[in-house]
Design goal:
Blueprint: E1 7-13, E2 19-32, E3 37-44, E4 50-55, E5 62-65, E6 69-75, E7 78-84, H1 87-101, H2 118-126, H3 140-150, H4 154-166, H5 169-183, H6 186-200, H7 205-211, H8 217-223, H9 236-243, H10 255-274, H11 287-306, H12 308-319, H13 325-342, H14 347-360, H15 362-370, H16 375-391, H17 393-403, H18 413-422, H19 430-442, H20 456-467, H21 469-478, H22 490-509, H23 512-521, H24 523-528, H25 536-551, H26 555-563, H27 568-577, H28 583-597, H29 601-615, H30 623-639, H31 641-651, H32 659-671, H33 693-707, H34 712-722, H35 791-801, H36 812-819
Antiparallel strand pairs: 1-2, 1-7, 2-3, 3-4, 5-6, 6-7
Helix pairs in contact: 3-6, 5-6, 10-11, 13-16, 15-16, 15-18, 16-17, 16-19, 17-20, 18-19, 19-22, 22-25, 25-28, 28-30, 29-30
């Protein structure tokens, strides 16, 4: 059986002066050759790994606190603590430490770190101890001066602490306090305030244990009421005895636990309310007080967690319908404070704590509490729920999916949370903001688990959209039945903004679930009604929602937007905003600019065809003119399908293809009968995207017949372009004046330059800017084909871009034949 006497927890003090749990193990002491001395060793009880290996340094100050703690500093900013399960084990290790340092085991601190000058050290050697004046009324001023003068020096602090501790001085001072208070001796009370405050700053656990004992703590608080800097004494004791009541909602049978709870509350009150805010120099002097409270809380949580009867009674009364509302209110507040205490625990201990609560049925209990009418009770339940969601959202998701098989949608836990968010009476919606954050955590796929047997994301999102989404969107749908929001007050607008924020998050992180919901329920059209709100923040939320949808570049969404003319409310909002340069103006322009830059063809055509007249006069940005240009380029390509087909074939070489495609194309070249090729006719390898060879070769043959009418210079250019196996030539279309253009664009736009930077579908478009192409004008309706002047440079750049396609798809024999 494992020896529990040596079972310890290892703690380190972090930068925030909080203790971090480094693990649980068993401590031993022995000589370590590598450290050249006797050392403390702690091995983890889980795997036997070494948690701590610390040499007992003869000059290190070790402190024994509360009979089961040993605290020391390894370095200037590295404090360690061992918390023993049993007092006997602590005593054994303490004796070993004292033996190495040559100290008496009866002391609680082996020595103090000495920072004094040599002169102080010499004085210390000549003066064996500090003599305190007699504890009398007429000597209180001398004692106050002695305490104040001792605090700056660590050595004098240590002597003062030993003197106060050894002579039982604190109890004598508290007797004197009662005398001064009876005599209303304000001068003496002011001196006692300074003395007790100084004793706190001695940072000594042994003194705290005396001061915080049941018989002394109220008198200590009384001394701290008489601050000389205040005109009237504070009434802390009156508050603690009359106002603050200990409500024992479930009887606590363990007297030690009851005393520990009382003590912790009062010490916490002293730290937070009674003691003045410590200065920068005094802050570290209260580190032992922080530690005292921390370890008390850990002990309280552990004792309550181990008391199965207590927790069973607690949850039984919480869920019992016969429990009175006042009683349930007290039970919920206790549970909230219990969970708040657990936040001081380290991760592994907190895991065990919440698992215990889960096994006890905390989630069904919360469901009952959230259904109550009492606002305070629901607020406390929300805080408890936030602890659970933060700890383990998967546990909450699993519970709500299981209960959906038994209960109606109206009483599901998540729907109760949504309803409380919607019905928040706070004008600033503080509770709704908190609940919305919890819902966001629950529907976030990033923290959902995926195992071999089940996918939490798929299951939970299907559940959420089936059972909960209609509850979440109900206020939005109810408020957007007309062309303007039916209710446009500030609180309603804030709530709708919160709902939109969550829906926007769903658009970004959920796929088909939210898409189906938006399209089937026509959610976007309803959301865009909010662009007419008098509250700019709500109108911007609606725009942000649509912008996220457009940003997905999903054709399902795009067709839905076009079919329902959903840009209309956006254009209306833009025009009604007028010439004001504000966030609304910028947000709408950015949306149209995104459509132009990303070349979303369907939306571009829809915007120009339906809203161009309303937007054509906007010239302070080039966004709308750019959209019109995009549209005209699309129309030109549609009106000249043969040229567009030829250009798409030539463009095939500019995109990467796999090795198998290149090999098939080369084999096709070698299998072609050379006699079948006419002079000057280019054979282009078929792409896997082509419909059929006959459909494509027919327009190519006709194009090449027209090509034969060109002069020899044009023929040479064509030959040069046909030899490029890595890229297709860029070309420019220019129609003569006698040719009637079928495009709807004005004459100035009849010249289309597909090689211009960023133009859609152009062979020369890319991340770099291509130089302007030299135009060749043909007679009649003939089309000229011309290469860029620096086409060779582009070929070299394309070779670098298409590093995978280094093999030329045209064999040398075919190249020579084409150039002949």
């Amino acid at each position: 059986m494992t020896d529990t006497r040596r079972r310890v927890k290892v703690y380190t003090l972090n930068e925030d002066r909080q203790w971090d749990d480094r693990g649980t193990g068993h401590v031993s002491s022995g000589y370590v050759e590598r450290l050249k001395g006797t050392s403390l060793l702690v091995r983890a009880e889980s795997d036997g790994s070494l948690l701590l290996e610390s040499k007992i340094n003869p000059n290190t100050a070790y402190q024994k606190q509360q009979d089961t703690l040993i605290v020391w500093s390894e370095a200037e900013n590295y404090d360690l603590a061992l918390s023993f399960q049993e007092k006997a084990g602590c005593d054994e290790i303490w004796e070993k430490i004292c033996q190495v340092q040559g100290k008496d085991p009866s002391v609680d601190i082996t020595q103090e770190v000495v920072d004094e000058s040599e002169e102080e050290r010499f004085d210390d050697m000549s003066s064996p101890g500090l003599e305190l004046p007699p504890c009398e009324l007429n000597r209180l001023e001398d004692l106050a001066e002695l305490v104040a003068s001792s605090l700056p020096s660590p050595l004098r602090r240590e002597k003062l602490a030993l003197a106060v501790e050894n002579e039982g001085y604190i109890r004598k001072l508290l007797e004197l306090f009662r005398v001064c208070e009876d005599l209303e001796n304000h001068e003496g009370l002011h001196h006692l305030y300074e003395i007790i405050k100084g004793i706190f700053l001695l940072n000594r656990t042994a003194l705290f244990e005396v001061m915080f004992s049941e018989e002394c703590i109220m008198d200590v608080i009384g001394c701290l009421e008489f601050d000389p800097s205040l005109p009237h004494p504070r009434r802390h004791r009156e508050f603690l005895t009359k106002t603050a009541r200990f409500k024992e909602v479930i009887p606590i049978s363990d007297p030690e636990l009851r005393q520990k709870i009382h003590q912790t509350y009062r010490v916490q009150y002293i730290q937070d309310m009674v003691l003045p805010t410590p200065s920068v120099f005094e802050e570290n002097m209260l580190s032992t007080l922080h530690s005292f409270i921390f370890f008390n809380k850990v002990e309280i949580v552990g004792m309550l967690q181990d008391d199965e009867k207590f927790l069973t009674d607690l949850f039984a009364q919480l869920t019992d319908e016969a429990t009175e509302d006042d009683k349930r209110h007290e039970l919920v507040n206790f549970l909230k404070e219990f969970c708040a205490f657990s936040q001081t625990l380290q991760p592994q201990n907190r895991d065990a704590f919440f698992k215990t609560l889960s096994n006890m049925g905390i989630l069904p209990a919360l469901e009952v509490i959230l259904g109550m009418d009492d606002v305070q009770v629901r607020g406390a339940a929300t805080d408890i729920f936030s602890y659970l969601v933060e700890y383990n959202p998967s546990m909450v998701r699993e519970f709500v999916m299981q209960e959906s098989q038994q209960n109606d949608d109206d009483i599901l836990l998540i729907n109760l949370i949504i309803e409380h968010m919607i019905c928040d009476t706070d004008p600033e919606l503080g509770g709704a903001v908190q609940l919305m954050g919890l819902l966001r955590t629950l529907v976030d796929p990033e923290n959902m688990l995926a195992t071999a047997n089940k996918t939490e994301k798929t299951e939970f999102l299907s559940f959420f959209y089936k059972h909960c989404m209609h509850v979440l969107s109900a206020p939005l749908l109810a408020n957007t039945t007309e062309e303007k929001p039916s209710k446009d007050d500030f609180q309603t607008s804030q709530l709708l903004a919160l709902i939109l924020e969550l829906l926007t998050f769903c658009v970004e992180h959920h796929t088909y679930h939210i898409k189906n919901y938006i399209i089937n329920k026509d959610i976007l059209r309803r959301v865009l009604v909010l662009t007419a709100s008098q509250h700019a923040f709500l109108a911007l939320c609606a725009l942000r929602f649509m912008r996220r949808i457009i940003g997905l570049k999903d054709e399902f969404y795009n067709r839905y937007i076009m079919r329902n003319f959903l840009f209309e409310p956006v254009v209306k909002a833009f025009l009604s905003n007028g010439s004001r340069y504000n966030l609304m103006n910028s947000a709408i322009i950015e949306m149209f600019e995104y459509v132009r830059v990303e070349d979303v063809k369907s939306l571009t055509a829809h915007i120009v065809e339906n809203y161009w007249k309303a937007l054509e006069d906007v010239d302070y940005v080039q966004t709308f003119k750019g959209l019109k240009l995009r549209y005209e380029q699309q129309r030109e390509r549609q009106d000249n399908p043969k040229l567009d087909s030829m250009r798409s074939i030539l463009r095939n070489h500019r995109f990467r293809r796999d090795a198998r495609t290149l090999e098939d194309e080369e084999e096709m070249w070698f299998n072609t009968d050379e006699d079948d090729l006419e002079d000057g006719e280019a054979v282009v390898p078929p792409s896997d995207k082509m419909k059929s060879e006959e459909d494509l070769m027919d327009p190519i043959s006709k194009f090449m017949e027209r090509k034969k009418l060109k002069d020899s210079e044009d023929k040479e250019v064509l030959g040069k372009s046909g030899l490029s196996g890595r890229q297709s030539p860029s070309f420019k279309l220019s129609f003569s004046g006698s040719t009637k253009s079928s495009l709807s664009s004005p004459p100035s736009s009849a010249s289309l330059n597909p090689g211009s930077p960023g133009s859609p579908g152009s062979p020369g478009s890319g991340s770099r800017n291509s130089p302007p192409a030299a135009a060749v004008t043909t007679k009649g309706a003939l089309v000229g084909l011309v290469d860029y002047p620096d086409d060779d440079d582009e070929e070299e750049e394309d070779e670098e871009e298409d590093g995978e396609s280094k093999e030329d798809p045209l064999p040398p024999s075919k190249k020579s034949k084409l150039s002949s």
